Amino acid sequence: MNKTELIDAIAKEAGLSKKDAAAALNAFTDTVTKELKKKGKVQLVGFGTFETTKRAARTGKNPQTGAAIKIPASVAPKFKAGKALKDLVNKK
């Protein structure tokens, strides 16, 4: 599912216009992004948690040449699914 399909699904599920659904989705992603930039986290009980994690500097390999390269330390976004979401996905 891409962003357009997600907007269509949200509009249908919530009884909103596609314009309103797009505005709501954009507001959600912008808000989560701003919070993660501040090293915060967004926890949606039953769904999951968006947070950041630190990645240490490490040595990697250039796949084309095999030469060793240094990969600098970074902060990466992470999503951890909540128990209720895991249970729904794994329900048979």
Q: Could you list the spans in which at least 5 consecutive residues all have pLDDT below 50? A: none
Radius of gyration: 18 Å
CATH topology of the largest domain: HU Protein, Chain A
**Name of the CATH architecture of the largest domain:** Irregular
| Percent of sequence in beta strands | 25-35%
Tally of discrete structural domains: 2
Task: Output the strand order for the largest sheet.
Answer: 1-2-5
Shape: elongated
Number of helices: 3
Distance between the termini: 22 Å
Fraction of residues in helix: 40-55%
CATH superfamily of the largest domain: IHF-like DNA-binding proteins
Number of strands: 5
Mean pLDDT: 95
The largest sheet, given as strand count, sense and whether it forms a barrel, is:
3 strands, antiparallel
Protein name: DNA-binding protein HU-beta
Organism: Butyrivibrio proteoclasticus
Keywords: DNA condensation, DNA-binding
Pfam family, one: Bac_DNA_binding
